[in-house]
Amino acid sequence: MAAELGGLAWPARVQIWDAALAAVRGYFRDQGLREVSTPVRVPAVAVEPFIDPIAAPPGLLATSPELAMKRLLVRGSGPIFQIAHVFRRAEVGERHSEEFHLVEWYRLGADLDPLLADVEALVSRVFAATGSNGHVPKTWQRARFLEAVTATCGARLRGDEGPERLIAALPPALAAEAARALAATGEPDSPARTLLAWTAFFTAWSDMFLEPWLKGHEGTHLIDFPAPLAALAVTDPARPWLARRAECHVGGLEIANGYVELRDADEQRRRFATVNELRRVHRSPALPIDEDFLAELPGLPPCAGIALGLDRLIALAACRTRLADVSLALAGG
Amino acid sequence: MDVSELRKNAKVQLDGQPYVVVEFLFVKPGKGQGLYKCKLKNMITGAVLDRTWRSGEKFDPANVESRKMQYLFKDQNGFTFMDNESYEQVALADEIVGDDAAFLLDQISVDVLFYNDRPVGVTLPSHIVMTITECEPGVKGDTATNATKNAVVETGHKIQVPLFIREGDKVKIDTRTGAYVERINT
Questions:
Q1: B162 and B115, same structural domain?
Q2: Cross-sheet strand order for the sheet of B158-162
Q3: What residue stretches are annotated with the Aminoacyl-transfer RNA synthetases class-II family profile domain (chain A) (predicted)?
């Protein structure tokens, strides 16, 4: 696992993508999911604090196929999967690219477990199909978000903290950084401020504590996120301060993010509005709300969905750390 | 400027001093904020420091003036460049040019940066084409592996190239990483 291995030769790149794409399709066919292909240019995207779409007048390039796939589920598609081209503006780095591939799938029933089992199976299928001599993760741990915080940096959080208590719980260096991020946000105790506090906390904690900790484990499913970080997930009925959201990591690399899907349109609208308020504070343009999606959301059957970064999985299988080392994009344009 | 404009070699004004980004890493945990981790070199003193920006923050571009100039020659005074309009010449010391010296082809046009009329750095084109002057013989048919071999280009810069590259080939090089990009068919 070393960056200095450099880029794969072109024939090897074509070979590994062919094998991986076939493995993904083969797996979902075996599981009885139908493949769909939804438009890349869309009228609106899921409203996220720090995911920016690329404009494609009169619409936007999809940042994920989530809203379109949910509207197919509303129409009775049954369980579906997609290998989607998605775009996120200004995300450029060794593990990020403005354009990448998301494998996204939905199963009926409000349970994350089958999706996490799918992730584990897909990772080993893709490793096997590509003839990877890399290390296939064999053991996967479940780590509850708040317990992982305590295990990695000692802070004990309940999950329903306000921004001040949250930041006070952090080690001093982190606290200063999170406070700087919060300073710009107006109204104390506003939902936007709470969201920003948790996002700032998560960003700093993830970078300094979580990632190094994850590197010591093969596979990790981080579960039970604090409710302010629910995004499009339901909150746990028995423990409403927690969201039924999961993030899957192989070593220190995040590969997937899943939800038990929220079906309450009023709650979803409030969350989108909160995110747009946070975006306003950050001088990011507010994003359009997909009214057609919200109008249809109450018709969504109970389901859970997850998206996996295919480029990252292929880089892992090729024992590479940079997406550019396995990409089929022609370099140096 | 928005932090999303930050890159390796970006010039940043910090605490009243001009800095150049010498190492750059973008990370973004989950649905969190992007982190722009930079190692910055003071363009006057050469002092190095680490600074991380978060997405949504702004930075000030360095207060430097950029002039298009042509590289002429190197002597004991350093690297001499000429302004294409005024024909004025300036010499930049070795330590200011630094690793970029590997890409200074004769007559190449670059941006020379001035801070208070003093030259403090050069900005190269992001990609340049150079000729391979030395490399081991190619291995025929071996295109399926990711193996590479050592090669030297006309400035003496050493790079790793695929096995099919031969002496005399022109190759595109990314000046930000120093790495081979592709062969140029002529």
A1: no
A2: B158-162, B148-153, B127-135, B170-174, B179-184
A3: 16-316
